[in-house]
Amino acid sequence: MKPNERTASRGDLEEDVVSGVVAEVCVLNEQGLHARPAAKLAQEAQKFVADIQLVSGDAQADCKSILDILTLAAAQGCGLELRATGADAQEAVEHLTEFFKRRFGEKR
Prior knowledge:
With about 110 residues, the protein is an alpha+beta fold. The chain contains 4 helices and 6 strands; from the N terminus they run H-E-E-E-H-E-E-H-E-H.
């Protein structure tokens, strides 16, 4: 397999044929990824059929589970990796990356 057949870059997203779509995101809101934004994030993730994971260091969380997301204890400024595999993985990662940029719909 040639290197360019394995990965394809699209903006800040990287698609890997083997492992899916990956993007780096940052928690911007003041209170971090607490209960309300975790619930909103899980609700948004559930709109997609893709398997979506949120990764912080060695910890990994199912992005469709509020409790899993909360276990990451992601504070403001925390960098996370968003990973998705499946039919709509690209769309899911793009949508959720924007959701992080909009601070989960919160003002601060």
